[in-house]
Write a structure and sequence with these properties.
alpha/beta; 11 helices; binds phosphoenolpyruvate
Length: about 250
């Protein structure tokens, strides 16, 4: 059985005081669903968030990391640094990292390898741009991103990988893929995995949808058979909205 997961990507939002406030509000929410809940605060607030949520049912995860173990990479953070403060999961390949920080399938493959080497779970993000979808190329683009960054891995690695399909045109735009568009792409992603690794492996990998998920649309999107949760940006910055999404399962 694959897990349902709702992960909040806080991006470059919330200083320490705002982080404390939002965590207090999150603790006051009630979870009525079976979804695993994660939040991804900024690097500077990871340790504090981890400590604050030690006793709670919310995993604190990182938004990014470098592939190298250590060394002359000014401004970067390694897997072992994250592990040393208790972080066990990292988001990799977010479209903002790809667009603004030149992350490529090739560099992401190295990051995934580093995460796996440290027994960290990866939430691996990918998705097509609007021009790709308009040209009818969305499956080719998404299939290519998955193959280039992940298909050097053995089947066992997928026990530690969660996929997050995030059409770039739906991130932070208020425009969401329709539940049918999300389901079609998620089914394609699962088939892509099944063709390479077999159906048993493909059926165990959680595939999250990300792109303007809100309390008003979460239930319909999550009701689709191949959608196993969400990666949430804007709505994760409000505790009530975030838990309305968590409880949409
Ligand atoms: C995201 O950044 O992963 C995201 C899905 O953002 P939003 O929910 O704001 O579209």
């Amino acid at each position: 059985m694959r897990k349902n997961i709702v992960a909040g990507n806080w991006k470059m939002n919330n200083d320490l005081a705002q982080t404390e406030e939002l965590i207090t509000e999150l603790k006051n929410q009630t979870k009525t669903s079976n979804a695993e809940v994660m939040i991804a605060p900024t690097f500077t607030n990871l340790w504090h968030s981890f400590e604050s949520l030690r006793q709670d049912d919310i995993e604190v995860v990182a938004q990014n990391m470098h592939f190298a173990e250590n060394g002359a990479y000014t401004g970067e953070i390694s897997a072992s640094m994250l592990k040393s403060i208790g972080i066990k999961t990292v988001i990799l390949g977010h479209s903002e990292r790809r667009a603004y920080f030149n992350e490529t399938d090739e560099s992401l493959a190295k990051k995934v390898d580093a995460a796996l080497a440290h027994k960290m779970r990866t939430i691996f993000c990918f998705g097509e741009e609007l021009a790709d979808r308009k040209a009818g190329n969305e499956e080719a683009v998404v299939g290519g991103q998955i193959k280039n960054a992940l298909f050097h891995l053995g089947a066992d690695a997928f026990k530690s990988i969660v996929l997050a399909y995030e059409p770039v045109w739906a991130i932070g735009t208020g425009e969401t893929a329709s539940p049918e568009q999300a389901q079609d792409m998620h089914a394609f992603i699962r088939k892509t995995l099944a063709d390479k690794y077999g159906k048993d492996v493909a059926d165990t990998v959680s595939i999250l949808y990300g792109g303007s998920v809100k309390p008003a649309n979460a239930q319909e999107i999550f009701s689709k058979p191949d959608v196993d949760g969400g990666l949430i940006g804007g709505a994760a910055l409000n505790a009530e909205d975030f838990y309305a999404i968590v409880n949409a399962f």
